[in-house]
Amino acid sequence: MRRDDPDEGLPIDQTALDKHVGSEIAKRRLALTMSAATLADLLSISTGVLSAYERGTNSVSGQRLVEIAKVLRVSPSFFFHKFTQPKSAGHDNADPEISDVAASDALIVSNIVANIRDRAVRLAIIEHAVKACAAVPAPPSARAAR
What we know:
The chain is mainly α.
């Protein structure tokens, strides 16, 4: 963890982590328009086991997570990138300005742009997106932090 992380040293809530990882597996699978049956077949597991992973009722082993990441064309760290500890006394991790849906949408767009072979087209899309974002006013919490 980062040194400035307010949750450093707190025990990880395994149930919350399992649910988060499972949810990220499901979101990525759906972003690729892959059925649960297809992913289960590619991993040589039953759809019931995959469903338990995606619901967070079964923990995914490290080895299995590496296999899932390979099939879903992401790094294993992808499944943890948005994980935050559940709120505990004095620790509020939720960012009200960024929803999980918005973050997931941004990841999908990022993957689409990354797969565009023509560099000029990629750069033009990025330039357009940056200009569009610059035209949007900062949220109130970002303005107050300045």
